[in-house]
Amino acid sequence: DKAALEAFRGVATKTADGKQVLLVANIGNPGDATAALEHDAEGVGLFRSEFLFMDAKELPSEEEQFSAYQKVTIAMKDKPVIIRTLDVGGDKEIPYLDMKREDNPFMGFRAVRYCLNNPEQYKVQLRALLRASAYGDIKIMLPLVTTLDEVRQVKALVETCKKELDAEGVKYNQDIEVGTMVETPSASLISDLLAKECDFFSIGTNDLIGYTMCADRGNDRVAYLYNVYQPSVLRSLKTIIQNGVKQGIMVGMCGEAAADPLLIPVLLSFGLTEFSVSAPSILRTRRTISEWTMEEADALTEKVMSLETSAEVRAALQAAAK
Ligand code: PEP
Ligand code: MG
């Protein structure tokens, strides 16, 4: 099987009838870029920048962050690299940020909420990202967005940082793209509005499933509810992808579901154009994509979207799997 997979190295990622999509990797630290390339990733779809913060004893400086982002983008050559700004809180704790204990951290003061309430601190990361964008194709991505205002506020901060860098004579990519994770039910429901304000979407199914089903991904007792085959989750994915496609922006997915061979035909049919998966899943995902024509994927998806339970959906996808 390993040898068979090697046939998918070095080729474009296409469906059986030739529709091309982008197949990129999720990474956690700059060193992972090498593994991503070894597994033939076409770029990075999610660099979880919180690892830079979690491995440190205090806030990483602009220089430290710049050098990490620059390292990734240089390693990836001219390939696209989506870097997500700090996604702190929930299951991701950073002791020195000295955040208050909350009864309900998954619905609390976290991610883009925390960052927008600490704009001077957030600007350090945005400036580092802008500076690194002079060395490759870096895109900025926001975590846990729930409102249009959050996106507008981040974009305003990016503009402030650009002006500062201009005044200092520092180079950066003027046209740097700013996009958002779509990983909350609110973002999904206003994805038509967000699509007008964002350069791209990346769907975070890990959180989206949890928030849609009100089921913590780490809780065994509600694990039976936590899956991507739930009709509510599928309707949400369809809404997000179609709203993005309608607006002409790239819609990708960086949650685990992007590598689920059962779900891939459905994602193709909805119009997903970027799949971001763990490095070891790259070649296998490229093969799965190559096994489907759009006509087959559309027919299967039409059938699946008429089913009423996650068990029926899973069974139908399993029966159709190649
Ligand atoms: C997600 O929520 O799907 C995601 C990719 O982000 P994380 O797993 O880091 O929360
Ligand atoms: Mg998430």
Task: Give me a quick take on this structure.
The protein has 322 residues and is α/β, with parallel strands linked by helices. The protein has helices at residues 2-6, 32-38, 50-54, 62-75, 111-116, 119-132, 148-168, 185-189, 191-197, 205-213, 231-247, 264-270, 282-290, 294-304, 310-320, and strands at 22-27, 44-48, 80-84, 137-142, 177-182, 200-203, 250-253, 274-278.
Account of the protein in words:
- This protein is α/β, with parallel strands linked by helices and 322 residues long.
- The chain is built from 15 helices and eight strands.
- The protein has helices at 2-6, 32-38, 50-54, 62-75, 111-116, 119-132, 148-168, 185-189, 191-197, 205-213, 231-247, 264-270, 282-290, 294-304, 310-320, and strands at residues 22-27, 44-48, 80-84, 137-142, 177-182, 200-203, 250-253, 274-278.
- Strands 1-2-3-4-5-6-7-8 form an eight-stranded parallel barrel, surrounded by seven helices.
- The protein is globular and about 60 Å long.
- The chain starts with a helix and ends with a helix.
- 44% of the residues are buried.
- It is found in: Cytoplasm.
- Belongs to the PEP-utilizing enzyme family.
- Its main location: cytoplasm.
Q: Which helices and strands, and how do they pair?
A:
Elements: H1 2-6, E1 22-27, H2 32-38, E2 44-48, H3 50-54, H4 62-75, E3 80-84, H5 111-116, H6 119-132, E4 137-142, H7 148-168, E5 177-182, H8 185-189, H9 191-197, E6 200-203, H10 205-213, H11 231-247, E7 250-253, H12 264-270, E8 274-278, H13 282-290, H14 294-304, H15 310-320
Parallel strand pairs: 1-2, 1-8, 2-3, 3-4, 4-5, 5-6, 6-7, 7-8
Helix pairs in contact: 4-6, 6-7, 9-11, 12-14
The structure holds phosphoenolpyruvate and magnesium ion (MG).
